[in-house]
């Protein structure tokens, strides 16, 4: 069984969001939301992946901060979908909850590394 690292979790989250978005209607406004959410969620994972090969502690911190910003944006778009989409919300609720957890994890990393850097 593969270890569930944060990188794996962010990757899986991106895949799950993309698969979820395929089920939503293609109204004009929903196309914009889908596009923005897809960009944000994949960028969050990609920037964290990049942080794993950072050339310095500062570079690592910057990439994780970007990942956190993108996860915050992902959470925003998911909450919009949660609010405007009629019908069962189970899948969207799970994605909103996962984005909240990922925000907390990434925030904790940036807070810890930021404090260490300032010492």
Break the fold down into its secondary structure elements and pairings.
Elements: H1 6-21, H2 28-51, H3 57-84, H4 90-118
Helix pairs in contact: 1-2, 1-4, 2-3, 3-4
Features:
mainly alpha; 119 residues
Task: Give an account of the 3D structure.
With 119 residues, this protein is an all-alpha fold. Helix 2 (28-51) runs antiparallel to helix 3 (57-84). It has helices spanning 6-21, 28-51, 57-84, 90-118.
- End-to-end distance: 39 Å
Question: Which class of secondary structure composition applies to the elements?
Answer: mainly alpha
Strand content: under 5%
Topology pattern, helix = H, strand = E: HHHH
Quick structural summary:
The chain is mostly helical and 119 residues long. Helix content is 82%, strand content 0%.
């Amino acid at each position: 069984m593969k270890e569930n690292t944060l990188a794996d979790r962010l990757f899986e989250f991106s895949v799950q969001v993309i698969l979820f978005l395929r089920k939503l209607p293609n109204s004009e406004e929903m196309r914009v939301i889908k596009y923005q959410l897809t960009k944000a969620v994949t960028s969050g994972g990609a920037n964290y992946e990049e942080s794993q090969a950072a050339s310095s502690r500062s570079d690592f911190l910057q990439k994780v901060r970007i990942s956190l910003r993108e996860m915050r944006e992902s959470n925003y778009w998911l909450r919009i979908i949660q609010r405007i989409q009629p019908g069962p919300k189970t899948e969207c609720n799970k994605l909103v909850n996962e984005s909240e957890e990922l925000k907390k994890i990434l925030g904790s990393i940036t807070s810890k590394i930021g404090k260490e850097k300032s010492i």
